[in-house]
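Q: I have 384 residues here and want to know how they pack in 3D. Can you give me a structure?
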Amino acid sequence: MDLSLSEEHEALRRLAAEFTDREIAPFATAWDRAEQVDSSIVPKLGDLGFLGLTIPEEYGGSGGDHFGYALVLEELGRGDSAVRGIVSVSLGLVGKSIAKWGGEEQKQHWLPRLCSGRSLACFALTEPDNGSDAANLRTKAVRDGDGFVLSGSKMFITNGTWAEVALVFARTGEAGHKGISAFLVPTDLPGFQRKEIHGKLGLRGQATAELVFDDVRVPASAMLGPEGKGFSVAMSALAKGRVSVAAGCVGIAEAALRAAVGHATSRIQFDGKVIAHRQLVQELIANIATDVDAARLLTWRAADLIDRGLDFARESSMAKYFASEAAVRSANAALQVFGGYGYIDEYPVGKLVRDARVMTLYEGTSELQKLLIGRAHTGINAIA
């Protein structure tokens, strides 16, 4: 077993790290305060090929594998999880879904735009009353002539106010997951309304929105995948998406480690020595460092399984569950190292705490991941 990076992967990781240090990290605090990432970051991500990773070059993508994708997402997450989320959603949840489920016309129309950064996409699954219970979503798509009319609403949609296209999941048939279909819906259609959500605890720079569909009419050609297979489209996207989130969480934990070490080796207290001389401070740093490496290895394993075409659902849930909880632990430990200074947004660790917390909630809560992992081992669906 060789856990060292290939020359190609090391070069990609270095490119992402340098971009993060130059274009993201210096502005993360200002974006957080303004609750708005500078939109000029999007074409820059496109120019470097980060919005086209794993997408075939014939559709405007930059190719590559999911392992390299995870390396890039870790570095972006280290700089600002709000930027990492732009890529995770537009490329990871939507672009990859189009590449897997889309017809040739859909691929030719949407993928070059998304990969270049000329357009962004959002993933419209969560509803005001249905998050983890996605099989019972209420948004409807009623057949009308040669198309469908969508009505309903979605909540907490990343990229919602920036996206040119929304991958919308709506009920076209019977109750339960078999009655759900997926649609690629341009956001400039009549009846498509969106409202940005402000005042979030974390990911404040990320454009998060509520979407409302007031009799939005789309042609039948907007359907992604077969009718009634929307739930499969969503679940396949989320299974891979959990690796994206896990990689971003490794980035948060790595940022916490670097901040804690930097502060501990420069902050002087008591007998004129830096606080890194204190055993309990070193314990905090040791815990963060161990969580970083464990989360990274779980994420690498899941990404490698995807690239080898093997089953990865259990491993992606493990990576997402462990890495998100590790990010919370690591950020909290780093704040403890900083003491009172950690509570001021002039320093980075408070933002890390806030950004880490939501990672245990979206794209499947920690509780849901544990159910999926348990089911994978027992073959039994747990009940309350």
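Q: Anything worth noting?
A: The radius of gyration is 21 Å. The beta strands are 121-124, 140-144, 147-158, 165-171, 180-186, 192-196, 208-219, 223-224, 268-269, 273-274.
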